[in-house]
Amino acid sequence: MAEKPIYTDLNGQKINKLVNFRLNPLTTALRTTLAGTLNATHEGLPVFDTDLNQMFYWDGAAFVSGVSPITGAMTYKGAYSNLTTEPASALVGDTHVFTSAGTLTWAGITFSPSAVVQINDLVIKRSATQWDVIQGNSVNASESLAGIIELATQSETNTGTDDVRAITSLKLAQNLATRGTPKSFIQTGITLVANTGFTISFPTTASNKDAFIVSVKDSTGSEIILDVDAVNTAGFTITSSVAATGITAFVTFL
Predict the structure, then answer these.
(1) Is 75 exposed, middle or buried (0-12, 13-18, 19+ CB in 10 A)?
(2) What pTM did the predictor assign?
């Protein structure tokens, strides 16, 4: 298409619209060549870099991007693996993906939440002395490796054979309640009348009238053998053939 040079200013106050208008499309190399022919009198000249798909304008000395950079915005800088040295000339917002695992020891730098990194973790420069570490790995968690972990179902919790899923406190409590956690108590100062049953009551209802163990000691702490009779889920009786005082009963029940 032929070009028609215009050597005068155009006043666009009366122009309704421009149809099929586009900025001068140039490759990066051509834009660089054009820059060598421009000076301060060409300030404001726009072009479109077809290699970068980005608009540039001439500021009187150089072509600058038509998009203003956002200070501190995240800028992807690619892979990094050095645990002992900070990336050279790093700017706030620079983001790297770590390709090695270990503990970062960059001089003068504080890491949040910790300096421990694993493969595929992100490190982002927050300030001159601060980098943030964001877990980016998707590996399964283990006893030695942080990662993704699945929660166990109530059935898996109750079975107790799964070693790869985590148990929540609620499921653990429900499991213990189902299993019937043993409960214990001590009753002291018991006085026994010969051949007369003495009833000991459970603090809470037992799961079964026979679901208990009792150890009886006399006032000197010696174990004694008495007749023990299960009564019901509320308690049981102990009976001695001789009178005795200062008796203590140690009871465990379900």
Answers:
(1) middle
(2) 0.39
